[in-house]
Amino acid sequence: MNKKHLVSWTLCLVLVLLQAAAVQAAPAASAGGGSLTYETAFAGSGNTLSSTEAQQQSFTVMDYWNVQAVTVELHFQLSQLTEEQRSSVTLSLNGSPFYSFRPSLKNNGEQTLRISAPVGFLRKGVNTLAIQGSLQTGTGEQGNTLSCNVDDAPDNWLHLFNTSNIAVKYTEKPITGGISDFYARFSGPDTVTRNQSLITVPENAAGSELEAAAYALSGMVKANALTDRTIPLLPYRSDTVADKQAVVLVALYDRLPAALKQKLDSGADPGTQALIQLVNRETAPVLVVTSKDESLLIKAGRLLANQELALQLGSELKIVDGSTRVEQSVSPVSRTFTFTETGDKLTGANHREQTYYVELPAGRSIADAGRISLDFRYAQNLDFEHSLVTVSINDTPIGSKKLQKELANGDTLNLPVPPNVNVSGNFSVKVAFDLAITGNGCSLNTEDMPWAYISRESAMQLNTKDRTELLFNNYPYPFLRDEIYNHVAVVLPQEMDDYAYRTLGGLFNLLGRYTGGNAGDVHFYTDDVAADNLKNNNVIAIGTFKNNKVIRDNNDKLYFQFSSDGSTLLSNEKMSIEEAYGSGIGTLQLVESPYARGMGFMAVTGVEMENVFRAAQLLSTESGKWKVFGDGVAADKDGNVGAYRFKTAAAADEESAVDRILDRPDVLGFVAAVVLAVAFVLVALILLLRKHLKKRGDKRET
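Above: the chain's sequence. Below: its structure in token form.
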């Protein structure tokens, strides 16, 4: 080989090596300062436009994004009967139209479009993309578009596949807002999607470290909008924190890594204070939460659980001492829910809907005597023989009213919530108007005709009650009650591996989502805990037959019991289990606590810790939770989930008069007033009687 060829081969080799190095460095470069893209898939399994209806899709733009471009990708199919030249689709961003097109019937009406949206129409936070269809299949007049009854037929449709998405291209701004800036990024959808968030504790963490970390995680996951993604909890090691962009370390001061300890504020006293400090801000941000005092460390964790307070921390250091207030109040459970703050206008003929979402604490359901009060008005040019309003809860109609011309400027609808509406947790209230128009079936289609308006006086009076049966249907009860931790004791194996930490983190990802305040208490123990420490607590036991004594001691109380040597799970009245299969499944079991009546005991267990983690994943995300019901659940490595009810289904106890009064604040107030009135009358009678007796006594003396 001559020198010329040798030089050429050498240059090629160098170029190949440089290219390989560039490819390996690309993810880090992108995370550090290059362009990133975050995609939001269209919600639902598929959306269909019919006639002139609109679909709305929401997506988020974070405060720390410098947005460069927005692309909407539409994958859809339309009715083969569509009149191409008379049909159109218009896209609007936050109410501003920016693109219209006529859908094509080529390829059987299925097509994909990529459309750039104006960056100037964006706003920080939640944005709304509206897709408005004008789909026509019948023949009609050209020129002025007519809205005719034929366009309400089922052959007017355009189906949006869930492969449609909104892609935002951006770069990340540097962290300048201190702890609050880090806090927002830690739970940001882009950070969580790239698996860049991590909460850590030292190896073989102490109970106080785990407790503080659990509180902090509970607050931070509430800002995580991705209900199918979790933020892991792992020990702080070089391999676990490598390439992470947002790490929280909760540790007692003497257990901090030396490299981080030397970066902490030298003026603070970790013996009498807790520190929440952001270090390595420019490179690999780490939020250190530490103290020598266990109670102050836990208090610092509660501060991070208070999302409102944490987002006010504009500096890189927060000192927590005995006088620091960290409490977060919880809204009262029974309250009036206002549907809209400013009022909502619905325009267009025929069927128009407005949906409102109501949040209830988990484990509570709607009680009797709830009421919906709807205040609204509507156009006077309707066909009042065929126009009405209907109210539904979770798509179950609860009442309707015919619209009347004489009430068009101010109408009301008051509806009791039926006692048989079985609703627990969050639910939706839908207000649907059927706005029929007068004429021969066709009328000029204008944007402002007809219309209906729901005023801000519309509200729902919520009365709720606890759902206290020990079933996964009511989870996270009993571990949360009225949105705070309800005397929780977590029993862990003596030796914690990564599966155990991931199991623990997954459980508190979901529990944290349901918390509304940072009160309540969670305590962590190893399996040699004394029974007295588990009294009056709802217990979560994590581990296997072999590594958790509490599970081993209570094996006879479980529905899925272990064999005598703990090598497999045994068959029961609900499920036949082959020996090899039983060694590879994980279980969730919710029974009454063997340590105190009326309390719960949840075993998250399996033969191996990998199986334990697999079962815990079902109670780590909202999508997993929907697969869980009854009181005993088994999950295998192939994704098969079996949920069973072992407890005997008891008839629902009739509520006592006291229970009904306590569930009715209005009646409670009336009863209190009556009791006070009776008390005043009795006191008056006693005083009169004493006065009368005294006079009689005076006469005798005379």
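The mean pLDDT is 86.
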